Amino acid sequence: MIATGGVRAVAVLGVGDTEPSAGLTPVEFKVCTSFKPIDWYERFVTGPSVMRFSPEQKLRLAAINLINPFNLATIVGEAGFEVMISSHSPYGPGLRGWGYLSGTNFTQDMTDQFFGTFVIPSITHTDPHYHRRPDLSIKRRIFHSVSQTFWQRADNGSHTLNYSQIVSPVFDIAISNLYVPDIQTHFTADVTQYAVSLATAPLNNFITEFVPSIASRIHTRVVLVQRVINQVATSPP
Q1: In degrees rounded to 5, what are phi and psi of residue 190?
Q2: In whole angstroms, what is the distance from residue 58 CA to residue 51 CA?
Q3: Domain match, 150 and 178 both
Q4: Which residues contact 212 (CB under 8 A, 6 or more apart)?
Q5: Is residue 192 helix, strand or coil?
Q6: How many Å apart are CA 58 and CA 113, to the nearest integer?
Q7: Does residue 153 contact residue 218 with C-beta atoms inside 8 Å?
Q8: What share of the chain is helix, strand, coil (3-state, %, to 5)?
Q9: Same-domain check for residues 7 and 79
Q10: Where would a tag sit more exposed on the chain, N or C end, judged by fewer CB atoms within 10 A?
Q11: Pair (79, 168) in one structural domain
């Protein structure tokens, strides 16, 4: 009954490619009682599959990337390190400077996520994900990581320019010039910042590309050690 009513509601609303007559007859629906559970570790290793994201999903992805605990820890940790090695910065020393710099870094990252993951990919219909290629050789994976800085997948599965990486730093720099203390705002400084942003962009790709492979090897070794321990524990004396 639920399946039939749901299909009929979709048909009446005209959502997707559903036939107008769908749901007029009972829909046979079988409850699956045996299914393979999702291997979340395997999904982490293989990376995201190719799928088209709506603008709403891209906005949600930007928010998730921003408030990710690891991202927040990186922002706070990086700010603490900078304040520790340079107590005479415009942010000041101690907890106040640490909090001030953490807030500045957070807003800069928020700007980057807003334009780089949501606005530009939504306008250009591109995929904000980085797609790993664990099936390639190490050299080709390195080349893939670098090339994805300027070349990415579109929503339809084809390839196009990485507009997010090329255009997003312009917005980041322009907005940062409005509020970041003691920042040089002349043209030469902006060009330098833009060049540094493009030069360091592959670092994130390298992390996404190779860390899961390293983690999979570590995972395999941990599982092997655990099996040995279990075998010893269950063996008769």
Answers
A1: -65, -40
A2: 12
A3: yes
A4: 44, 45, 46, 47, 132, 134
A5: helix
A6: 10
A7: no
A8: 65, 5, 30
A9: no
A10: C
A11: yes
In which domain, by residue range, is 200 found?
40-44+53-234
- Rg, Å, the chain Cα set: 24
pLDDT in tens, 201-218: 888 888 888 877 776 665
Largest CA distance in the chain: 77
Query: What are 62-103's pLDDT values in tens digits?
Result: 898 889 888 898 889 988 888 888 878 888 888 888 999 999
Residues 81 and 129 placed together within one structural domain of the fold? yes
Domain identity same for 69 and 122: yes
What distance in Å separates the CA atoms of residue 177 and residue 145, rounded to the nearest whole number?
30
What is the SS3 string spanning 71-124?
Answer: HHHHHHHHHHHHHHHCCCCCCCCHHHHHHHHHHHHHHHHHHHHHHHHHHHHHHH
Bridge partners of residue 159, in order along the sequence: 153
Report CA-CA distances (Å) from 148 to 11, 139, 144, 206: 41, 14, 6, 10
Selection from 9-13, 37-41, 135-139 with the highest mean pLDDT:
135-139
One domain for residues 68 and 147: yes
Contact 104, 180 (CB under 8 A): yes
Report the DSSP beta bridge partners of residue 154.
126
Whether residues 219 and 125 fall in one domain: yes
Q: Is 157 helix (H, G, I), strand (E, B) or coil?
A: coil
Please check whether residue 128 is in contact with residue 120, taking contact to mean a CB–CB distance below 8 angstroms.
no
How far is the C-alpha of 219 from the C-alpha of 48, rounded, in Å? Answer: 19
pTM for this entry: 0.65
Joined together, the tokens standing for residue 184 give: 């040089």
Closest listed residue to residue 202, CA positions, set 133, 129, 150, 153: 150
